[in-house]
């Protein structure tokens, strides 16, 4: 069971809790809800810093996990860096397009490959790779 953080995308009356908090409105914590953790391992420990590898289901908040670890240790804990390495069928290693390949053609190819991982009509859509025709813009100085 996990209590979601107040600064989250969860909504109250159609607005994100984080937006309400930023406006200074009182926000009550949402009740604890079931979450799934498939694996949790300590990768590195150099006090006071540690690195975790977490494989979890949707709706799991790593920030809440780290906060709970701090409470259990009678101290506080926060995240210094968070990297999502997998989301659904996509992995950072297999599907991230490296900066040196950021061209319109490479991005379109990458998107087509990713779309093929989805079932149904969504995967049959093609992406337009041509750049829009340049439009001449003139401005008269007054």
Automatic annotation (TrEMBL):
One of its GO terms (molecular function) is tRNA pseudouridine(55) synthase activity. SUPFAM superfamilies: Pseudouridine synthase. The keyword Cell membrane does not apply. Residues 63-98 form the tRNA pseudouridylate synthase B C-terminal domain. Pfam families: TruB_C_2, TruB_N. One of its GO terms (biological process) is mRNA pseudouridine synthesis. Keywords: Isomerase, tRNA processing. Belongs to the pseudouridine synthase TruB family. This is tRNA pseudouridine(55) synthase. It comes from Phasianus colchicus.
